[in-house]
Amino acid sequence: MKYDAIFILVGVGRCSQALLFLAGVLGLIRYRILPPELRWLVGLIWFGLVMEVVSQAAAALYHSNLWVLPIDAAGELWLLSLVFAWALHSPTFTRAQPWLAAVFVFYVVLSSGLTIEFSREAARFKPAVQVIESLLVLGMAGLYFRKLLHELQVPSLARDPMFWVSAGLVLYFISKLLIALFSNYLLEHYSRQLSLTVWTVNGLLTIVLYLCYLRALWLRLPK
Predict the structure, then answer these.
(1) 44 near 79, Cβ under 8 Å?
(2) Which end of the chain has less neighbouring CB within 10 Å, N or C?
(3) pTM recorded for the entire structure
(4) What is the pLDDT of residues 139-156, one digit of tens each?
């Protein structure tokens, strides 16, 4: 039973990586016809692929890959803020975006000790970084849903690329937020089966997120 759960978790991870790569390739193929917000999404996808390679390489060398998490969070938040800056068309958010991203990156650097070296402190899991990132992304997705409700200019949500992106982000980052909030409890009351279940669910939501990316990049854009 335990080995079946591990096999499922590994399979879910491989599937999500394959979907991320497929989304990256599709984004490159359609890059020239994509609007600016989806071009930044393509950049986010390829950044995620680079982080996957680095994480896998560290694990293959029998080193902790937890130091990748703050770098991934900083880059992911910065690129997502650019995606939403273009999608929202809000002068206020556009002015705030560089400050929002810069303050978060500065916080990540300070909290992770990356200015000194990849020390033991930098290799620890930082739930606060994950919590803040999740709340910021959920807030940006909420602003986009608010824009859709106020403007009512989208004839079909299923044909709106950023709706799919925002919906996928909400599902994924709610899962990520809950894992970060209860990480201390999971560590103190460690159960291998519970841990496998939690990360399998998170992996399935990652697959949903990447499917939403694929849907957004695949949609035929209005002329």
Answers:
(1) yes
(2) C
(3) 0.88
(4) 999 999 999 888 767 777
